[in-house]
């Protein structure tokens, strides 16, 4: 088998559409209206599991429970991703942390410490649930683990975080001299 001594040179003057073409000669879309934006029907099919890899079983065999159906539910006036597992509605912990708690506490580690103290046990997401949450934008693209908590547990956690914040506020002003001593 003979090998060419010089590699082919690609240049902007190469023939359009030819084997040596560097760029695609035709546009992928004829108008901006045809750009690859998610439509509501695409999102709904993704959420219900009929497209995009969402849906199916939790990976525990043929008789496994279907708990990969994701719904958007309202928590404190904001839509949050949730799954129904064993008849319980569970919401995405990293998402509610990002939306409601990150300005109240030091970080996610603090939240996990509070969960332990409040005796709240989050449910670990399946791989498929993590994929669905990433696809919806509920968690960051690089995240490969996630936990879910009940709405009741979230309210207990939220109240604990807001009460701790108020306690720190009152302690700071109670012991800070007001006359500049």
From TrEMBL:
Gene3D superfamilies membership: Ski (3.10.260.20)
Chain residue ranges for the region called Disordered: 1-36
Origin superkingdom: Eukaryota
One Gene Ontology MF term: RNA polymerase II cis-regulatory region sequence-specific DNA binding
Residue stretches making up the SKI/SNO/DAC domain: 66-163
Keywords: Nucleus
Nucleus keyword on record: yes
The protein, known as: SKI/SNO/DAC domain-containing protein
Lineage per the UniProt record: Eukaryota, Metazoa, Chordata, Craniata, Vertebrata
């Amino acid at each position: 088998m003979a090998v060419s001594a010089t590699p082919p040179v690609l240049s902007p003057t190469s023939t359009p559409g030819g084997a040596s073409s560097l760029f695609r000669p035709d546009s992928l879309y004829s108008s901006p209206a045809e750009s690859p934006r998610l439509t509501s029907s695409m999102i709904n099919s993704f959420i219900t599991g009929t497209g995009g890899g969402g849906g199916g079983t939790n990976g525990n065999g043929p008789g496994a429970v279907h708990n990969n159906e994701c719904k958007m539910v309202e928590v404190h006036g904001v839509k949050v991703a949730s799954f129904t597992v064993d008849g319980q509605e569970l919401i995405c912990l990293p998402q509610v942390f990002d939306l409601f708690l990150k300005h109240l506490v030091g970080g996610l580690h603090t939240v996990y410490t509070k969960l332990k103290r409040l005796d709240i046990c989050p449910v670990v997401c399946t791989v498929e649930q993590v994929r669905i949450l990433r696809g919806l934008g509920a968690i960051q693209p690089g995240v490969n683990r996630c936990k879910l908590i009940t709405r009741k547990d979230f309210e207990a956690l939220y109240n604990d975080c807001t009460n701790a914040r108020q306690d720190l506020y009152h302690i700071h002003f109670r012991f800070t001299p007001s006359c500049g001593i």
